[in-house]
Write a structure and sequence with these properties.
Structural class: alpha/beta
Number of helices: 5
Strand order of the largest sheet: 3-2-1-13-14-11
Distance between the termini: 14 Å
Helix content: 10-25%
Shape: globular
Number of strands: 14
């Protein structure tokens, strides 16, 4: 089985369209799966503490063309968490569908989550020690990264990397601006 992992779309229509096109051309059989932050919340964390709901459009842009691209399952990222805390149930059927989404997903071989659940160092190295899964996939920092047994590795884009031995933490990288995504092949035990 193949997963095309994406994260940090932040409501970007051109970037999301470009990445989904690249996935379709490269790995049309892959299951597209999002690690969160599909939508961009217009209300920052500090302002959210005192925000009173008036209308959905003040909080999030739900562009119909962008929404047409969202055929895949997604985890909740910190952006969705904030959106759902600010927008009441029933105000948006699109966002109401997200309310049943999970914060993480476990498979036989990996754990998927949004990286806001990790502690981060100043140099954007995540502390993955609370998680014991051999493969941990995440986003959030907008900086791709590959860590094996706690050590950062260099990445050569487009070249499959074996994940058969060791513990890996993989920051997929953002769709927004960078247009990054990751192909995870569970049969070959590789990431690209």
């Amino acid at each position: 089985m193949q997963y095309a992992l994406i994260t940090d779309l932040h409501s970007s229509l051109p970037d999301t369209r470009a990445v989904l096109t690249a996935i379709q051309q490269t790995a049309p059989q892959a299951i597209v799966f999002s690690l969160g932050d599909v939508h961009e919340c217009h209300i920052g964390k500090k302002r959210a503490k005192r925000y009173t709901f008036e209308e959905t459009e003040q909080i999030v842009t739900l562009d119909p063309d962008f929404l047409k691209l969202l055929f895949f399952e997604t985890l909740l990222g910190n952006q969705e968490e904030r959106l759902l805390s600010l927008i009441p149930v029933g105000a948006s059927s699109t966002l109401d569908q997200l309310r049943s989404s999970d914060r993480l997903k476990q498979t036989e071989s990996a754990l998927f989550l949004h990286g806001d659940q990790l502690k981060w160092s100043y140099d954007l190295t995540p502390d993955t020690s609370p998680y014991k899964e051999r493969l941990l996939f995440f986003g959030h920092s907008h900086v791709r990264g590959l860590f094996k047994d706690g050590k950062r590795l260099k990445i050569q884009l487009g070249v499959p990397i074996s994940t058969k031995r060791g513990y890996y933490a993989i920051n997929v990288g953002p769709v927004l601006v960078e247009r990054e995504w990751l192909l995870y092949d569970t049969t070959a035990e590789t990431i690209t």
